[in-house]
Design a protein that fits this description.
Blueprint: H1 4-18, E1 49-64, E2 81-95, H2 101-114, E3 118-124, H3 132-140, H4 147-152, E4 157-165, H5 167-170, E5 176-185, E6 188-197, H6 210-220, E7 222-225, H7 242-254, E8 260-265, H8 272-294, E9 301-305, H9 318-324, E10 326-330
Parallel strand pairs: 8-9
Antiparallel strand pairs: 1-2, 2-6, 3-4, 4-5, 5-6, 7-10, 8-10
Helix pairs in contact: 1-2, 7-8
Length: 332
Amino acid sequence: MFKNSRFLLFILVAILLITAPTAVSGATHEKDIEGSKDHPLITRFPGSIIRHYDTRKSDEYIFPTGKDIGEKNEDGERLDSSLIVGDITRITYEAPADTSTLEIYNNYKSALEEAGFDIIFSGTEEELTGHWTVQLYRDINPLPPGDAHRLTITQEDFRYLSAELIEEKSEDYGDIYVSFITTRNNKRVGIQVDIIEVASPAEDLIEVNLDNIAREIEKKGSVSIHNIYFDTGKAVLKLESEEALTKIADFLNQKPDIKLYVVGHTDSQGSLEFNMDLSTRRAEAVVKALINEYDIESERLKAKGIAFLAPEASNESEKGRAFNRRVELVKP
């Protein structure tokens, strides 16, 4: 079921946590909440019970990268965090009451590092003051009332870390992010594990066919086409673009009254001025091809370029940059 890289990650994290020394709590006979399960990448600390479980597809998560997550800059952007879009799994565990947060933290940290994760940020209640857990789990990435709140939101005794596994290490998969905290609130010990999986952009491409183009334009007024290709820094269409251009022309022929902006997008390599010019010239090349080679009326198409100002993925990785180099059809 798992490809090599993800299966290895699962084995490493699972083995390290299963073999971690821990006291056996008298509460281990209790059952997990109905419908819950461990994430396949990271198993539980021995003796822990799932008190909250939630999964969401292609949703937003504000990922902490520093202590000032509650602060915003003058543009209203939150400091010390990154906005990540991916498949999110959130699991709240109750650990054995006689286990220390330090023991739990050290085992998760070691397991993640052995599996290839980089620790991005970490801190304790002494370092992360000002109701830090309230900000993270009530205001920023809210958890539902109940055990998820009681076990996670506390300034009494907690240890936090955020970690990432970049796509270069996970091969066919995109980036994987883990936000982890272990807490003690009175006599209860909690563990919150949030896992965000960002699919490799190559797996997320919209297939270029008439149904998808029509559906996306009808649904949101635009559709991104990732299968139009140019050489680096140039605006000459490559032969591999023919299939996508044909599908676009077919769509336009089926919708004779529709007019479209053809919008060029680039990655963030190079200056804004250079990419503005490049994205415009690439959009113009697509328009020219549709007019000259597919007999689409010129008044139906208008070329625009917006460089890297509207990315769909992170420009920090090659796959993300490749995903951002696209042509978008926008209905006025």
